[in-house]
Amino acid sequence: MRTFEINRKTAETDIALTLNLDGTGMCKINSGCGFLDHMLTLFSKHGRFDLTLTCKGDTEVDDHHTVEDIGIALGTAFAAALGEKRGIRRYGDIVLPMDEALILAAVDLSGRGYLGYSAEIPSEKVGTFDTELSEEFWLAFTRCAACTLHIRQLAGKNAHHIIEGMFKACARALREAVTIDPALRDEIPSSKGVL
Fold this sequence. Notes:
By secondary structure, the protein is an alpha+beta fold. It has helices spanning about 35-45, 65-80, 135-145, 160-180; strands at about 5-10, 15-20, 25-30, 50-55, 90-100, 100-110, 115-120, 125, 130, 150-155. The strands form three sheets. Strands 1-2-4-3 form a four-stranded mixed sheet, with helices on one face. Strands 5-6-10-7 form a four-stranded mixed sheet, covered by helices on one side. A hairpin with a 2-residue loop joins strand 5 (about 90-100) and strand 6 (about 100-110). It is globular, with a radius of gyration of 16 Å.
């Protein structure tokens, strides 16, 4: 099974995270940030990743450190659980509708961290959540997962729907990319022989 457990403690956050790439979407999440809990639950369910997460962060300051550090921990767990990436499809993409919002997500588990992020989120907050933290989460994730991820908002007027669409779309693109391709068997999907 492709699993990884990480405990990451800094002066700003204390995170315990367990990830199973070959799960069923079971999750137990307590980040200290309600909107992020909702997004990570959707991510787990739509990616069929088993995910447990607890975070004690300095949310009395704001949610920035919590959101960014969870992105770091989740990205690190993805990279570790994938190992050499033998047999994976490597690429995944989707155009996902979420009511009036339409989100494109495309991923390459390339070993190179890059985020292409294009969104016009119409409000600065969803509840108490700063909407700019969506980009911070995915930036931290891509750097530590060492993947190329493009997220494009093609339509949308509701900030909640736009961000929710992003998490669902990224989950489904990642699900496709991490899936073992029977045709590849034990091969590394790169002409270089390494990812």
